[in-house]
Amino acid sequence: NLCGNDTIKTNLCQDEITLPLIVSTMTARTASPSPSTSATNNKKTTTSLWAGPTMLEHSCGILAAMSLRSPTNANLILTHHGSTAITSAMAQNPHCVPVLRQGCLAIRNLVSRNKENIPKLLDSSDNLELVLRDVAGKQQGSVDEAYAALRDLGLSAKLITIGDDGAAAPQSSVAMFGDTKPRFRPVFDESDDMEGRIQNHIDVNRGPT
User: Fold this and answer.
1) In 3D, which of 22, 141, 149 has the Cα closest to residue 89?
2) Three-state DSSP class for 169?
3) pLDDT tens across 147-159, in order?
């Protein structure tokens, strides 16, 4: 709802407050003592993202909505290192499908109308391709979005099958996206006729009167 229409999301993206705040919140890190540190050794600390999975999921979703059908907003997000924030969120939460899905959608929207930005994302030190292939691409709930993001980045991808045990295995043949019909919505957008479908569901459950 924060980016419910193009005017609102553009104003938020370009107000020089909201976007930097979102990215800084996503990338803020907190230090904690290392579990292996003993009382007699020098203290060591490890760092992790301060934001939890729910906050990162919605932050990635906001960036996806801001950049949808808006090359200008996509460029602003990249200027504020939004792609780094998105990649870090996915890498930090390798088993949290909502974060992975929203992250993949955001990456797609950043480059779908800004192909000139693809080298910037792939040449950075964020390991974006690795995260898409080996993290998001190996979860049942985000595999389609991960491979669509790889496609939009101009990268080839193998189709995989994920078994009941969660293990990922390559299929016998290699295919590029577009050879088969995807099972997800191609863009991050509002559902069509949501109120009508909810009312139909209520009417069916209510039964004849």
Assistant:
1) 22
2) strand
3) 999 999 999 877 6
Across the range 152-168, mean pLDDT stands at 73
Distance CA 85, CA 26 (A): 6
The end-to-end CA distance of the chain, in Å, is: 36
Cα separation, 26 vs 57, whole angstroms: 10
Residue 119 makes CB contacts below 8 A (sequence gap 6+) with: none
- 161 φ, ψ to 5°? -115, 130
Q: How far is CA 4 from the centre of its chain?
A: 18
SS3 135: coil
pLDDT band at 30 (very low <50, low <70, confident <90, very high): confident
Specify which residues 30 forms β-bridges with: 48
Residue 188: the pLDDT is 47
For residues 34 and 43, give the distance between their C-alpha atoms in angstroms, rounded to a whole number.
8
What is the C-alpha separation between 23 and 187, in angstroms, rounded? 22
- Report the distance separating Cα 103 and Cα 146, nearest Å: 9
